[in-house]
Amino acid sequence: MTALHFVLLIAALVLSCSAQAEKNILLFGDSLSAGYGVATENSWGSLLQQELARTQSGFGIVNASVSGETTAGGRQRIDRALDQFRPAIVIVELGANDGLRGASLKDIEANLGYIIQQAKRSGARVLLVGMRLPPNYGPAYTIQFQNIFPSLAEKHRVRLLPFLLEGVAPDQFQPDNLHPTAAAQPHIMGTVLKELKPLLR
Question: What are phi and psi of 25, to 5 degrees?
Fold first, then answer.
């Protein structure tokens, strides 16, 4: 083997290892996933990235979350995000802003359904993250809103995390009572990781 052949072989091996070293997990959400009000390195998405690196899972987080995002905005962005990042897994965390604005439940469900379908068509596995609304929106709307997520998970056969903020203490919210503080981020990361783990295999 000549020196040139040896160099080319090593380069090919390095490129191959790099290509296989890390598979993308696309975090596709709103301010709850973008880390609103906390330092980026303390957000649950960043903590999840650190945990995946620590465990040498072979996966890395690409956070495409946007504060204020709605399911309609996500619907417009998903195809480009899938093309750009080629994720193996997509975590879909959208709907809270729609619900807080009293948006059409039919539209919320249709938009989330489209996002899930496109992610699956790209070959990605999907973790759908459920949300809940404050009780002041009325029981009829809040219950129907909450039921959208398990219904979609069953229809599209994707994994469901019923509620992103499950177990977050009342004193771990920012003054707006909507966004968790930095102190809550490790707990949220653990909640997501528990449901994500089966998709990492």
Answer: -110, 115
